[in-house]
Amino acid sequence: MNGRYGAISAAIWQDRKFRKLSDGGKMLFLYLLSSPHGNMIGYFKLPVQYALHDLDLESPQAFYELFSELQEQGMAFYDQEEEVTFIRNFLSRNPFRNINQVKGAFKQLASAPYSRYMEELIRILPKGLSLDCKPETSATFWEKYRPFSRILGTNEVENDISSKGLIRGFETEKQDLKGLTRGLVGACNTEQNSNQNRTETEQGATVINFPASPKKDSLQEFKVKLSLMLFKKDLYNSEIGEECIRIYRNVGDVTEALRRIETCSSKAVSHEDMITLLQREGHVEEKEGVG
Fold it and tell me: Could you read off the pLDDT of 111-136 as tens digits, one per residue?
């Protein structure tokens, strides 16, 4: 990381979860916090062979066994299939303090590989907004975060980080940016335990033992990938999001739905064009389905 991102506090040695780790587990966690392969959002590609070399470990199994300690404590997670590492509380320890850091974080998010932990990363991203940042920094963050919160913040998503609060916050962010930030960070902290329990309950020992990935929720995978696509293309509004989800429901396949939406976006020159093209695509699929 070249000293640019991760900060390791001396208080870590009194941290209850950290103290429960074996010496090898402690070494692995400190390595993740200061890894040369890391970034400013705590979610990054980490091929096993890189970690074996850096940590002088003998086999992938040794790496997985150490990582299982971190997963048991809810400190960090590893997607073996995608070779992606996610450090759960990295953002709260390394908050964004200015506009450039916010822009850099979203740029890294846009280029990050997809894994089953990306949705949780997106949901807790507000924890990365420093409470003492300037109003313009908060405004930039919430504007960039809008596609993610609106697409993922539907009634179908359980344990959402107060989606109604997010929407109200967008409407009032200019009036009370710092108050909104404090409220959202508080909401994130409140949801952390329930999200952790949900993750551990659903994935349980299966994830800790690094088997094949558990069955994915295709709709949620689609929404995460859709929000990233629309963010990159700067083509988001609520109607576009609704039409995109309608296309997915008609097609029933993540890859095919995203391909069709990508085709529409390549032809659109405005938000209005995008909506028209999506409606046309969705209408064709509905007629085919009826026949």
Answer: 999 999 999 999 999 999 888 889 99
Structure tokens at 163: 């989606």
Q: What is the pTM of this model?
A: 0.74
DSSP state of 157: S
Q: Measured between alpha carbons, how far is residue 223 from residues 55, 150, 217, 276 in Å? A: 36, 10, 10, 20
Q: Which residue in 102, 18, 10, 85 sits closest to 46, CA to CA?
A: 85
Please give the Cα distance from 100 to 20 (Å, whole number): 37
Helix, strand, or coil (residue 83):
coil
pLDDT tens digits for range 193-218: 444 444 443 343 333 444 344 445 78
User: What's the sign of the alpha-carbon dihedral 240, 242, 248, 250?
Assistant: negative
- What is the C-alpha to C-alpha distance for residues 42 and 40, in angstroms, rounded to an integer? 6
Class of CATH domain 10-92: mainly alpha
Query: Helix H segments across the chain?
Result: 16-20, 23-33, 48-55, 60-72, 90-93, 99-111, 118-124, 135-152, 163-172, 177-208, 218-233, 238-251, 254-267, 271-290
Per residue in 40-55, pLDDT tens? 999 999 999 999 999 9
Q: Characterize 88-123 residue by residue with b for buried, 16 or more Cβ atoms within 10 angstroms of its Cβ, and e for exposed.
A: bbbbebbbbeebebbebbbebbeebeebbbbbbbbb
Domain ranges of the chain: 10-92, 99-108+116-208, 235-290
